[in-house]
Amino acid sequence: MEFDIKITFDLQRGNHDRDRSERMAFWDAEDTVLWFKQRGYTLYKRMDVNASYVVPSLPSAEVGLDEYPYSYYENDTSSPRIVPLRAYGEGKVAFAQDSKNRHVAIKIVHQDSDEHRILEFLRNQDIETLKEHCVVPVLDILSIKGFCFVVMPRWGTTINAPAIQTAGELLFLMRSMLKDIHTANFLVSHFTDSVAGADDSKMRAELRSQNKLLYAISDFDFSMMLPPEVNRSKFRLPFYESWGSFNVTTDTAQGEFDFNPFVMDVGALGVLFCHSYQPYTREILILAPFLDRMTTRDLAKRFTASEALDFFENMTSQLTEHELRLILPPISPFLEAIYYEYDRWANLPKEFVEKWAHYREPPIPLTTKILRSICDTDWGGRVLPLIRLFFSRAISSVRASARPRPYQNVPEQHASESKRY
């Protein structure tokens, strides 16, 4: 018997709270369970009728050592607060076991959206290519009217847990994230109880110390599919496209009327690095110039994705085995100052600071602070970009009219903003 299932709840990107009960009811419905069962997937079951969490429906091995692209996992029962292989089950993503009892994640995606096109593209890529570029592979895509279900291997979240122990472990993680800079969610190739298990996982700590963990991106909610011939250095989007949960930079916080998403992606990853790892500049000196150049306000000087990876690999390759095995101090990075206020150069050797002074980000000027305060108002964030766009076009028009044109008029586009703000 063929079952017909329909999506009736909101799938607006970035909205995780709306229609929560309706999403849960969809995944728990008998027709949904049977529809996936017919296609070889056994959905996880809800812990109780009102619970936000789900657990595997079928028994699993105590320890999972599946080969890539599948993940390591552990049925940890060492603590009464841990529920083996528990996962959140109230969003656009559900979890299941395939016909070989391997654990997978299933995400609902709008058909013909940019996200769908990206995932179809990834589905057709060689699996080793995806592994090299740190992208979780797409295993299957199941379609219904208007939507599709994208099947990927289940990996773990909370990539920083348990606490990173050595400089080498930290640098390996950062290098993986640099392989394919994107502001999406990063996953790790090990999972346990998603709620309480990762912080104390001895298995994950051991895998990390052996450099066996892989890190990859999997979420393309805010991504767009662009033609390969697009000039990344000149591509622009209007300022309001930067609004949303993915933008953690201040690239459009001064009333800029447009932005380069490729430049912003590098900055966003730099901000994430800063908020998690900037206190370690005292132990890993090269992080100071590296993080400053990833997040600089001077967008023309900010690293491109390839420049960031090249710089990082070049500098870390010069570290000795002793330096890589350096034990990092226990700190609480998220309690530190935000990235543009934190002094990453404090207490570093004078010779090092002088050598890398040209990478150091200067203090925020008063004009920038004033523009940011205006944009923080209810009206400023919308009005100031339009004012700046008007004056930019006016100045461009005046310059164009003053320029001698012996043969023909050549239209000149207004200059995009890439100065320091």
From TrEMBL:
UniProt-listed SMART domains: S_TKc
Any one GO molecular-function label of the UniProt entry: protein kinase activity
Domain of life, per lineage: Eukaryota
Protein kinase domain location: 79-312
Stored InterPro entries: Kinase-like_dom_sf, Prot_kinase_dom
This protein's name: Protein kinase domain-containing protein
Species per Swiss-Prot/TrEMBL record: Agrocybe pediades
